[in-house]
Amino acid sequence: MSDEVRINGVQHSWASTILKIDGKPWHGIKAIGYSHKRTRTKSYGMGRAHAPRGRTSGKYEVEPLTITMETATARLLRDEMAQKAGTSSYGDAVFQVVLQYTEGNSTITDELVDCAFESEGAKPEESPDPLYEEVTFDFMRLIRNGKTLHAPPTGGGR
Q1: For strand 95-103 and strand 42-43, is the pairing parallel, antiparallel, or unpaired?
Q2: In terms of Cα–Cα distance, which of 66, 74, 65 is closest to 132?
Q3: pLDDT of residue 47
């Protein structure tokens, strides 16, 4: 199956985006960034060609999730996560982030599993624009439409 032909069709865009943090939708979001990779190493041995003999199954790694959000949204998120953690530290909460892009009957779902606050920062400046903060989260793995980049777990894990 290849991608479908779209003639005068609507593509997924920022307007198609729904972000849920800990199961609740959030709207004061300006930008979202995340990535993951599977680093593999080739193995070599003797032989005239000195070509690789194989490769490892790889090490799965994620880069931090960064979300640029309105300052008031960041404050509310910190309050909710501190309440979830049951302490004054919002950094102790672990939660799920789900990002969906929906247009017509096409939905793309990215699940960022076991997220936790990592860092945050702001650069308020004179401008007519609203104030934003960049919040960074650590997460354990990314599931895209039910599929993973990492090798499947053994023993029934996710």
Answers
A1: unpaired
A2: 74
A3: 84
Q: Within 10 Å of residue 132's Cβ, how many Cβ atoms?
A: 20
- Residues β-bridged to residue 138: 116
Instruction: Write out the two tokens for 29.
Output: 């979001």
pLDDT tens-digit readout, 105-141: 889 999 999 999 999 999 999 999 999 999 999 999 9
Angstrom distance (rounded) from CA 59 to CA 28 = 35
- Over the chain, what HEC string results? CCCCCCCCCCCCCHHHEEEEECCEEECCEEEEEEEEEEECCEECCCCCCCCCCEECCCEEEEEEEEEEEEHHHHHHHHHHHHHHHCCCCHHHCCEEEEEEEEECCEEEEEEEEEEEEEEEEECCCCCCCCCEEEEEEECCEEEECCEECCCCCCCCCC
Q: Residue 49 carries which side chain, given as an amino acid letter?
A: A
| pLDDT confidence of residue 88 | 94
- What pLDDT, on the 0 to 100 scale, is given for residue 11? 81
Structure tokens given for 100: 């969906």
* Tokens describing residue 47: 């032989």
